[in-house]
Amino acid sequence: MSTHTARPTGRGRLPGIWSLALARASVELRSFTRERDAVVFVFLYPILMLALFATVFGSEQAGSAGTGVDFARYFLPGMIATGIMLSSFQTLALAIAVERDDGTLKRLRATPLPASAYFLGKVAQVLAVATVQTAVLIAIAALAYDVPLPSEAGAWLTFAWVFVLGTATGSVLGVAFSSAVRSGRSASAVVIPVVLVLQFTSGVFFPFYSLPAWLQTAASLFPLKWLAQGLRSVFLPPEMVSLEPSGSWQLGLTAGVLAVWLVAGLVVGIRTFRWRRHDDG
């Protein structure tokens, strides 16, 4: 995952790193939109799951009578969190594993394109997809299920940094985890079970307060739990904080845990990233 500076060509130097990254992001977005099955899954999965939970639970409430909220509202933060995870961690881990397996990374490495531009292009693609996906999900929740949206600027500021930090962390971890996949054919079998386990244990598919204490503790070791909790602080009313295991939204700890995973992902990614397949030297 090391970077190198753009090399001069016979006609002069390559454009600046940000111009190259923007151009690479455009390529990545076009490539992503051509994979229609992936587009449908990444965009529709959180929406369908929100619709499913809203339908199954109906008018039931999370929390005690009088202070609880309906489950469409309660599960919205978890669906946003899982959407971010799908757009960042899962998408990058799968895509990079496939690109390594089919020789795309090897060919790119032989071009003057700096490695940093390649990774920045990936991150820009993830941010674009996650932003559109999240905006659509929030709009559907508000319009179809009457989920009230925050009215305070501070809540949206919290949403912004949790979203950006969570997306960056998921992206870095996706790049790092791609090195654990031995081939493009096995990528789904390696990546998707990890995503599913984290979803079931991090307050995405079940109210986090209803999980056993030992499972809550185990989930607290991973970033998805903190991403979902940070988003709950934005979309749920203040009195719902009593359902959190600590009795607090723990926003400082949320930022700290996500930052630690971000740094850890960078370190592991830099040390383990490979441009070629295991059997290609």
UniProtKB/TrEMBL annotation:
It comes from the Bacteria. Residues 37-276 form the ABC transmembrane type-2 domain. The chain crosses the membrane at residues 38-58, 78-98, 119-144, 156-177, 189-209, 249-270. Keywords: Antibiotic resistance, Cell membrane, Membrane, Transmembrane, Transmembrane helix, Transport. It holds the Pfam family ABC2_membrane. InterPro entries: ABC2_TM (IPR013525), ABC2_TM_bact-type (IPR047817), ABC_2_transport (IPR000412), Nod_factor_ABC_transporter (IPR051784). It is a multi-pass membrane protein. GO terms for molecular function: ABC-type transporter activity. It comes from Antribacter soli. This is Transport permease protein. It is found in: Cell membrane; Membrane. GO terms for biological process: response to antibiotic. Belongs to the ABC-2 integral membrane protein family. GO terms for cellular component: ATP-binding cassette (ABC) transporter complex.
